[in-house]
Structure formats: C-alpha cells, structure tokens
Structure to design on (147 residues):
C-alpha cells in the first residue's frame, strides 16, 4: 500500500475518532476509502478503485465489506430511513421487473422528519431491491440494482 494511502487512512481514522463518528467515506481520483469505527463493526477498508469490486481487508477481525459496482445501482444520496412506498397502504414505487427511467421516484428517504423523494439516476429494469422498507440507509448505499 502506498504511503499516501496509508496516511489518508490514518487521517480518516483520526477524524472518525475525534468527531465520534461511526464511519467515514472518502473518494478521489478513482480511489475509494471507507473507515468504520469500533461502534459500527471494528473494520477498516483499504482503498480500491471505485468501479471495480475488490476484497476488503478487515482490522481487527470481523467480516469483510463488499464493494459493489456503482454503475449498476441507484444509491441513497443521504443518511436516513428508506420507505419503498408513500404510505403503508400504498404499493411500492418500484419492484423487481419494473422499468425505470432517469428522474422517476423509486423510494423515499426520511431525514430529519422530512420525506425526500429519491429519483432514479439510471434507466433500465429493477433486477433487485437491496433494502427493506423502514430500514436505515447510509449515504451512497445501494438501494436498487438496475439491469
């Protein structure tokens, strides 16, 4: 691992600790770093090129983190709670097999008591729903696989 990457990991870990965060992510020049603190899972993920999945290195020991190709996923633009329909009695905005187009609402993410419509950034067919309604989501977490 290059010294520059080691230094970036140390700085992110320091920011994580100093600001009492559970995790922190950073991406620049095709390098993606995600550092997870002890409250989240006791793991640090080494940098990998963003579009190529690679095995993660865990420290001190739990399970590795899976890195997914960003070009196939609609991701959450914020931290919050995801809802797949506008209310419990309504059908889901989209389901497996549905065709979606760019700008179409695919779910809602509640953040700070505000329901934010999440729009598709891809056109294609929903091949997989990766979250359950009512579950917490993180920034940039994949929500739907689009084929």
């Amino acid at each position: 691992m290059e010294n520059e990457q080691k230094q970036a990991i140390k700085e992110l870990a320091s920011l994580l600790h100093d600001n009492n965060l559970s995790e922190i992510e950073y991406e620049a020049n095709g390098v993606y770093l995600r550092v997870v603190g002890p409250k989240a899972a006791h793991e640090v993920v080494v940098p990998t090129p963003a579009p190529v999945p690679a095995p993660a290195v865990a420290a001190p020991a739990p399970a590795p983190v899976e890195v997914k190709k960003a070009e196939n996923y609609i991701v959450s633009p914020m931290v919050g709670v995801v809802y797949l329909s506008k209310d419990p009695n309504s059908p889901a905005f989209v389901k497996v097999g549905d065709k979606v187009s760019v700008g179409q609402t695919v779910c809602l993410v509640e953040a700070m008591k505000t329901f934010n419509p999440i729009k598709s950034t891809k056109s294609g067919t929903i091949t997989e729903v990766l979250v359950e309604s009512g579950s917490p989501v993180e920034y940039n977490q994949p929500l739907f696989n689009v084929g």
Notes: Residues 3-18 form the longest helix (16 residues). The mean pLDDT is 78. The domain at 72-146 is CATH 2.40.50.100 (OB fold (Dihydrolipoamide Acetyltransferase, E2P)).
